Each structure stands twice: as C-alpha cells, then as structure tokens.
Amino acid sequence: MNKKMAVVATVVCLFVVANAAPKPNIVHIFTDDLGQQDVACYREGRASLYETPNMDQLAREGMRFTDAYSPAPTCAPSRAAFMSGQYGPKNGVLHVMGGLLPRPLNPDFRYIAPFYSCRLPVDANTIPRVLKQAGYVTAHIKKMHVGGRGYSYPYPVTYGFDFSWGKNKDYNDPGLWDKNMKHKQAYSEGLWLPMQPNRLSDFATSDPDDPYRTDPNDDDRPFDGTVDLALKWMDKVVPGDQPFFLNYCTSMVHGPLSARDGKRFEHYCKKLGIPVPTQLGSMNKEHSGQKNPYYATMVDTTDWIVGKLVKYLEATDDPRNPGHKLVDNTYIILSTDNGGCTGIPVINEKGGREYEQVTDNAPLRGGKQTPYEGGVRIPFIVRGPDIQAGVVSDALVSLIDLFPTFMSIAEMEPQPELGLDGCNILPVLLGKEKAPRFADGKMRDSLFFHYPIEMPMSSSVRKGDWKLYLNTGPGVNRAPDVELFDLSRDLSEANNLAESNPKKREELLRDLHAWLNKHDAPMPYKNPGITKTPHANQDQVPAITGRGSEGDKLWVTYETGQGKAKVVSALLLYTLNPLEFQKIHGTNEEWFQVPARVESGRVVADAPPGMTHGVLYLRDENDFFITSEPLPSVKESNYKIKDSEIVKDGFGYQPGLASMIQHGEAAAQSARNAKRDTARLDGAVLSARQLSAQMAPERQACYLAMARIRNEIRAFDDIIAEADLEVFNFFPLVDLSKW
User: Fold this and answer.
1) Which strand ranges, in their side-by-side order, compose the sheet holding 544-550?
2) What pairs with residue 722 in β-bridges?
3) pLDDT, tens digit, for every residue of 412-430?
4) Where do the domains of the chain lie, and which CATH numbers do they carry?
5) Could you tell me what percentage of the chain is helix, strand and coil, using 3-state DSSP and rounding each to the nearest 5?
6) Angle CA(329)–CA(330)–CA(331) in degrees, nearest 5?
7) Which residue of 166, 373, 574, 648 could cross-link 611, Cys pair, CB 3.0 to 4.6 Å?
C-alpha cells in the first residue's frame, strides 16, 4: 500500500470509529402472568378477544420467539433466575413462599417440599451490578419479588440498581419522587392497584384530583404512575453520556382482576355480548376460552403501557447518537415471568366464593403454577438495532439468557466466574445463529425446570421437540410418575408417550437426573407422620430423643441401632426475627439455613449470631424429614401465623446471644488492631454478657442486645471482616431508639 492509500484508509477508519453508534440502551418490559396466547400475534390466525396492537407492532418490527420459556411456573423463581442468570437450584429461589419452615400441606400428604430461600443473597452477581462495569446507569420500577418476604429488604437498590425504591417503597431520587406526595400508593402501584371497595366501582374519571385521571388526548386512558416514573427517569438520564438499562416490571396482569379503565371495560363487555355487571361474582365460570372482560381490560392496559414506553423511545432524540431517535439504539425486550393464570376464586354478593376463568392458554396445556407448557411457555419479543423486522424464531430461549445477552449488548466479554446458566442470544437476534450457544461455543439443545413445591411437585426437561416430566411427589402431585410428549406433534401434551417410547424416556430421564445431581437440587422429602397408606420403611424413621443447647451450640439426639435408618444429613433453619421488620411488615418473617453436623446419634449446629429461633431438620437414608420438635401441617396452622409462633422450643434466644457475644468480642479485637475506638462495641458486649448470665432473660431484651452489638460491628464495616458476615447483612440496621 502506498502512502496516499494509507492516509485515505486511516481517515476512513477514523471516520467509521467516530461515527460508530455508542453502546445500546436496554429496556426490558417485564409483565406479570401474561400468557403467550394473550398476545394477539401469538394466536397465529385464531381469533383473539384481547387487543394488543402495540405488542403486535413490536413483533412486526422485531423478532418474535415461539419457544421461549420462563424458568418456573411462578413469579419469584423466574424473576430470581432472570436477575441472577442462574437456574433456581443454583440461586436458591424455587417458589414464591420461600423462607418458611418446610411442613406438609396436609397431615396425610405423602411428601413435604424442601426448604428454599425467598431472596437472592444481597451480594449476588446481578444484571445491574455487572452492567455498571460497562458504564450503564440502571433503574428498576415496580415489581421486584426476588428480595425478602413481601416488599421487605433487600430492595432493588440493594441489588445494584441506581434508581429504585428503598425502605417504605420510597424511590431514591427526590427529584423524581416526592415521598410526601398525595395518592402515593396509587402512583407507586399504578393502574394495577386493586379497586376499592370492589371492582364494580372506583373506575378512573376525568376529575383532576383522581389519581387515575383520564386523558382526553389519549382515548380517555387512565393515568399510570409507574409509566410516568419510567418516562421521567429516562428524561433525566438520556441527556447524560451513559447508556441506560430500564427494568420496567408492571404488576399487570396479575390478579386480583379489576379494570380502572371503564371505557375499555365496557368495550370488552360489548365485544363479548354481555351486560356491564352490577353485582359481584364470577364473570366466567366455564373452564375454557377468553371470555373475561376484566382480564381483557388488564391485557389491553398492559399493551397500552408497552405503547407508551416504545413511543417515548421513538419520539425522543438521542444525544449520544446525533441525528437518531433513542429507539434506533435501544434493545426493547417484552417478556413475562410465567404462563397465564387460568382461574381464581372470586367473592360474590353473598360473600361466598365462586370460580372465575381468567384466561385460556390453549393450545398449550395448563397455566400458571403448573409445569406444563401453559405454565412456562411465554411471549418473548425483541426489537433493536440490526434485528430484522418480522422474524419468527423457534429457537429454544429462556429468561436466564437475558443476563449474558445484556452483557453482549454492552460489549462485555463472558465472565465464567459469574456462573451463568444461560446463553448469549444476541447472535440469534442478529440472524447470525439459528440456536443459542453457550460461552464455550457448544450448542444448547435442552432447558431444565425444577419445581419441587406444593401440589405440582415435579422436575422436567425439554430437549429438542421432546418434553419429559418427572413426578417428584407421588400422592401429592396426582400426575403419572413420568410423562413424555412430542411437542412437534402434540403441543397440547395430550398423548403421554412414556410407555410407548422407552428409549426416549430413558434418555431424557438420564439427562434430567444428571442435571439435578449436578446442581444438588433440593427434592421433596417423605412425610414420616402419615397414617393413611404409610411409606415403605416408615417404621425405620429414627425418633428425636432429646434436644438442648450449650453456649452457641445446639443439638438433638436421635434413635440409632438395629431397625432404625441412618441419618445422612442435617440443616439448621433459623430466623433472626428483627423487631423493626415485624413492626413494618407484620407476619413477613424470614428463615434461613446453615449446615448442621451429623455425629453418632447426635446432630450439632452452631447458632448464627442473632438467631432467635431454630429448628433442626434431619434427613435419613430413606429420604424422610425428621424435625427437632413436632411441627403442625399448614392445614393445622396456616401461613398467616409466623413460624416462630408455632415453634414451641426453638432453642430460645440464648444460643444466638452467645454467638453474637463471641462475634462481638472478635470484631472488637479486629477494630482495636486497626487502631479504632471500640468503647461502644465493648459496652454492648458487656451488657449482653450480663443479660446472658441471668437465669431466664426476657426475649425482647435478648433481641435488643444482639441488635445493638450488630449495629456497633456494622459501624466498622469499612475496616473489619467480621462486619461482612452474611447474617449481618440480611437486614438493614435497626433503629434502636424506637425500642
């Protein structure tokens, strides 16, 4: 190449680099319970009651996936899998009701669900934390459901989001959020907030003081605070020099079913040929079809929300990409957390309950809370830079793929240390690959599901066109032990081929068992207390013969010898029972687990600092659960009662107090080594020692003593390792002035 050509080439390269688009923005619209067949473009020629023009347009301008999956058939495990990029057995979240003591739902239920967490660890590798490494500014709006019981700690900001809510659900930017605003709950919950006193009233009006005031310039659509907040946040960050990630998570279309938009509700009643209801009760007692005007209005409203966000991106100039709109350099992802809910109970005029059909996922079988296709196959649409318009893909994709895909969009290299289970699907989106590949280049041909919870106890695998279900709770889950379906010929999963195709059945069973073993997936346990149709070897279950504690150690003894099964593993389940959160969140108590040691005829555990109650769970060689003290079934004592109130012994507060004292002494020594004043911590430890020496110290006094030591240790979190103990970071610091 001569000098003249070299100069020209250099100028061209510099021009290309100077005009290259900056890192793309990412907008994830994460709906709740939206069934795949609720979106009109997925009906593929079949009539749809629900009108979804904005979602349909998104599909026309992007890529629509027919074989996309949520990792679980309920919200919390799917959201945790999305946020962590990991399957539930790895991240610990398997269902919604996590952080509770495992108990049989009914005394005669043959299996008991294992313990599982209701939160990701506060230091988990999450999408916002990793995207920050690439310079992204991040926001989470509305439903999270991966941190703690209900809306309690950890908050979205705890998991790394720049903008979201903290304590009392106040968002952390005073410029965007007035914590003293009028109609605060209506604004933070949006149009989803249940109507009061019932769904026959409280429709949005044109009254300026109505928190859902209708807009005559937008077809009389009601106002939604969550959408308004999302638009305000984008307005604030767009002029900056950073790409942004917005995780917008509406609670639509989750029940209770109601419709703020009276105009659209009347439209769907008319479309169905039914009168607008004047009495409470079911709108559809049938078990098939899309016939519910309340639900239709909620789907319609969800579509309107999608349109508001997309139209903002289409109308707003992109200062980082002059001459372009934001949409030109933004990936928009529409997804949901599980399949559509098929039916719920509703209250009628007489106060009784009636069945109400919500939606119909046909031709998919089942719906939310079932492991079948209707429970986990979801709408999944992506529009963005260089994605060819109008493409329909049958690639096997999952919500766990979004983490590595977002990293690729952010121009980040794979990080094996993150332990991600999903695939980067950006090559599929850009038409460079037909199917997802793992970071090592291997093509993925299977997705796995593990749901050892309540009635549907099962695990499953989809491999190619085949889907296999393993019943892990026979007698609770009434399905056959194994089901096998060819989805290419039987999308409705009506013809079980497990017996007629043993070769494929055994192949998929091997794959599923290998995956379960690889992830050490918690499995349901046999109930040793059933009297009807007892299990084999139930008479061999060793009984607890004693329990007690010494200092920070707690223990149980159990039967051994001839005729008794061997105990092979044990866990200590414990709660910290923070009074601050009892006051704010009522019964939202949360339990955690640590390993216990199995010795000859004895199980021993170390009480975590601050433990208020504990229960030891032993597993014998025949997979029976044995607890350190008898516990009632859920039928006998339901979830409205805190588990700490059904525990009769729970080892008291003393082991947790002793452990906290020891940890406080170690922390004080570390702080002194760092030349820090430890007078306050020393005083807290001394007071706790004096309390511990009493014959029967009052329990609240024990808790407050432990909380004081914890607060003082956390004051040194910049210099000592003791402050980083996981149990010290389950909850925010307690304001002891209130007690």
Assistant:
1) 544-550, 553-558, 602-606, 597-599
2) none
3) 999 999 999 999 999 999 9
4) 24-446 (3.40.720.10), 447-526 (3.30.1120.10), 538-646 (2.60.40), 657-738 (no CATH)
5) 30, 20, 50
6) 130
7) 574
CA distance 139 to 157: 9
- In a 13 Å sphere around the CA of 389, the CA atoms on its Cβ side amount to 5
When computed from its CA atoms, the radius of gyration of the chain, rounded to whole angstroms, is 28
pLDDT digits (tens, 9 = 90+) for 284-306: 998 889 999 999 999 999 999 99
Residue in 358, 404, 405, 399 with CA at minimum distance from that of residue 380: 399
Cα dihedral 189, 190, 191, 192 sign: negative
Dihedral angle sign, alpha carbons of residues 460, 463, 465, 468? negative
Query: Contact at 8 Å (CB) between 528 and 624?
Result: yes
What tokens does 211 get? 């928190």
Question: Model confidence at 579, in pLDDT bands (50, 70, 90)?
Answer: low
Instruction: Region of 319 please: left (phi>0), alpha (psi -120 to 50) or beta.
Output: alpha
b/e for 590-619, b at 16 or more Cβ within 10 A? bbbbbebebeebebbbbbbbbbbbbbbbbb
Q: Which residues pair with 356 in a beta bridge?
A: 344
Neighbours of 636 (CB within 10 A): 12
Task: Assign 3-class secondary structure to 445-505.
Answer: CEEEEEECCCCCCEEEEEECCEEEEEECCECCECCCCEEEEECCCCCCCCCCCCCCCHHHH
Strands 244-249 and 466-471 come out as unpaired
* Cβ within 8 Å of residue 157, ≥6 positions away: 163, 164, 165, 166, 172
According to DSSP H, which parts of 355-445 are helical?
A: 373-376, 402-409, 426-429
- SS3 category, 306: helix
Distance separating the N- and C-terminal Cα atoms of the chain: 80
Determine the Cα–Cα distance for residues 650 and 613; give it in Å rounded to an integer.
Answer: 5
Average pLDDT rounded to a whole number, residues 252-259: 94
210 DSSP β-pair partners: none
- The amino acid that residue 142 corresponds to is K
Q: Percent of the chain beyond pLDDT 70?
A: 95
- Alpha-carbon gap, residue 478 to 457, rounded angstroms: 9
pTM of structure: 0.93
In three-state secondary structure terms, 594 is strand
C-alpha 556/C-alpha 533 separation (Å) is 29
Is 223:213 a contact under the CB 8 Å cutoff?
yes
Helix (H, G, I), strand (E, B) or coil at 424: strand
Residues 316 and 293: their CA atoms lie apart, in Å, by: 34
Average pLDDT over residues 506-522: 97
Q: Which residues of 459-492 are buried (b: 16+ CB within 10 A; e: fewer)?
A: bbbbbeebbbbbbbbebbbebeebbbbbbeebbb
- Return the amino acid letter for 529: G
Residues 647, 631: contact at Cβ < 8 Å? yes
Average pLDDT over residues 63-90: 97
